[in-house]
Amino acid sequence: MKHRWIALAAAAMTASAALPALPVQAADPVQVVVFGDNVAYAAGTAMQAYAENAGITNAEYTFLTTENAHTDDILTQLDDAATQTALKDADYVIFAVGLYDIIDPYIDQATEYRIQFGFAHFSDIFSARMSDFGIKSDDELTDYCNKLGRCARTNRKTAQANLPQIGEKLSSVTKAKVIAVNCYNPMDTIEIYNSLSAKRQMAYDSACNPVKAQMKDYLNPEYAKFTDAYGITVVDAYSAFETKAYLYSHPEELQPEPTLYGSRLLAKKISEVMGQDLGDMPDPMLGDVNGDKEITASDAAQVLIHAADIGAGGKGAITKLQAMYGNVSRDFTVNATDAARILIYAAIQGAGGDADFGRIG
User: Fold this and answer.
1) How far apart are CA 77 and CA 6, in angstroms?
2) Mean predicted lDDT score pLDDT of the chain
3) Does the global pTM surpass 0.90?
4) How far apart are CA 311 and CA 344, in angstroms?
5) Residue 57 near residue 325, CB atoms below 8 Å
6) How far apart are CA 121 and CA 35, in angstroms?
7) Which residue, 148, 274, 129, is CA-closest to 214?
8) CB–CB of 170/88 below 8 Å?
9) 122: Cβ–Cβ under 8 A, 6 or more apart, which residues?
C-alpha cells in the first residue's frame, strides 16, 4: 500500500489549545507535534478542533503524520532530520502507530472478496443471501473468514518488534511529554451483528477475533511497556473502543480510522493527560458543517467557500470543528470533493433514499 508523509507547517495549523497550568498570556505557544498514522492525525485534529471550540488559544500543532503508516514507515521517519527537529522542540507529542500493520493485509483480502462477490461494503458479505456468493453453505463463508483471520497475522511479528524501537527512538530525540494511543480493534462489532443468524455471527467472529488477538496479545503489551521503559503515557483506546467499533470506527466499510465519535473520545482522553478542559463537546454529525442538525446544500456551499479560501492562500472560512464535520471523505484535507459528496448525500436524502457517506465515492 502506498504511503505518503503529511507534514503541515505549524503556522498553518495553529489551533486553540492552551494548557491551564501555563499563564494565559504565555509568551511562547505550547508546541504540540502529532506523529504517526491516521489515528494520530484524527486524535490531533480533534484536539485542535475541540480546544478551539472551548476557547483555548495558546498552542501550535505540527502534523508529521503518515497516511496509512506501518511501524516500518515510522521508524524510517524517526531518522529524518526535520522530524527530529520538530520532536526536539515539542512540548507534547501525540503518537499512534501499529493499527495499519495488522489491518492492511486484511483489507486487501477483504477487498478481493468484495469485488469477487460484487458487494459495496465489507459487511454485505455477512448479510447477503448465499446465492449472492455462489456458495452452498455458511460453512464456506466461515472458510473465507478464516483466511481473513490469517491475513491479520501477516505483519504481527514485525510490528511487535518495531514498537520498542519506536519507543526508544522517540524517547531519545524528544524531552516532550509523549502521549501514545494504543491499538484498538476497528471492526469488533458491526451494527447488524445481532440481526445475523448464529452461523453468520460465528463467521463474523472468525473474521474479527484474530484482529482482536493481534492488538490485545501482541501489539498492546508492547505499548503497555512504554510508561516504565520510556516515560510515555499510554491512552487505552483498545478498552475504550471495545464492543463499540460500530460507533467509534467504520467496520461496515472496513475503514479503520476513528469516526467523529471515536476522534472526540480520543481527544477527551488526551486532553485529560494534558490537563485541559475541553468543556462541552457537542455530538458530531458528519456533513453537518453549519450545525443545524441537517445535511443540505448549505453545508456543501460552506465547504466550497472554505476550500476556495485555502486555495487562495487564506486561512479558511470555517472553524476546525466545522472542517472535521465537513471532511466526509475522511482523508487529510477538506476540499471540493467533500462538498460534492455532501451534495450527493443531500440529494439522496431529499429524494427519500437511505443516504450513507460510506457508499458515496
Assistant:
1) 11
2) 89
3) no
4) 23
5) no
6) 30
7) 148
8) no
9) 110, 114, 187, 251, 252, 253, 254
Residues in contact with 269: Cβ distance below 8 Å, sequence separation at least 6, in sequence order: 235, 236, 237, 240
Cα–Cα distance measured from residue 24 to residue 193, given in angstroms and rounded to the nearest whole number: 49
Q: Domains along the chain? A: 5-282 (3.40.50.1110), 285-361 (1.10.1330)
CA angle, 114 then 329 then 118, to 5° = 15
How far apart, in whole angstroms, are the C-alpha atoms of residue 165 and residue 118?
42
Torsion of CA 344, 8, 97, 183, to 10 degrees: -50
- What is the identity of the amino acid at 258? P
Check if the beta carbon of residue 281 is closer than 8 Å to that of residue 57: no
Residue 294, sorted as left (phi over 0), alpha (psi -120 to 50) or beta, turns out to be beta
Which pLDDT tens digit goes with each residue over 34-71? 999 999 999 999 999 999 999 998 899 999 999 999 99
Measure CA 140 to chain center: 32
- The residue length of the chain stands at 361
| Residue whose entry in the numeric block shows the C-alpha cell 515510522 | 74
Long-range Cβ contact pairs of 121-126 (< 8 A, separation 24 or more): 121/252, 121/253, 121/254, 121/358, 121/359, 122/187, 122/251, 122/252, 122/253, 122/254, 123/190, 123/192, 123/251, 123/252, 123/253, 126/190, 126/192, 126/196, 126/200, 126/203, 126/204
Strand partners, 179: 94, 233
